[in-house]
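hey so i finally got around to running the thing on that chain from the lab meeting. sorry it took forever, my laptop kept dying and i had to restart like 3 times. anyway pasting the input first so we r on the same page abt which one it is
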Amino acid sequence: QVQLVESGGGLAQAGGSLRLSCAVSGRLFNIYALGWFRQAPGARELVAGINRDGGTNYADSVKGRFTISRDNAWNTVFLQMDSLKPEDTGVYYCGAYTYGSAWYNSWGQGTQVTVSS
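ok and heres what got predicted. didnt touch it at all, straight out
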């Protein structure tokens, strides 16, 4: 089992920045990747992911604006969000993708991000 707790959401103006953090605990050795997902009205979409080799991937909508990073012990994963846009608004969830699973299968409780125009 992996436990995830997000923090750092809030209200920002368009063009501003926010930094999200996710504290990770539990069976850290079993984690293949950590990611940030966004849920607005509609489906939950992958915004950014980082795997155990350090490889990263981003949704096209955030490339060049968002940066995912983690500490070496996999205790914390961050999402630096710059040049925010109103369409970045949503609930952001931290997710863990564990070995043996087909996709992300552990989630935090989510943190609200609201970007005003």
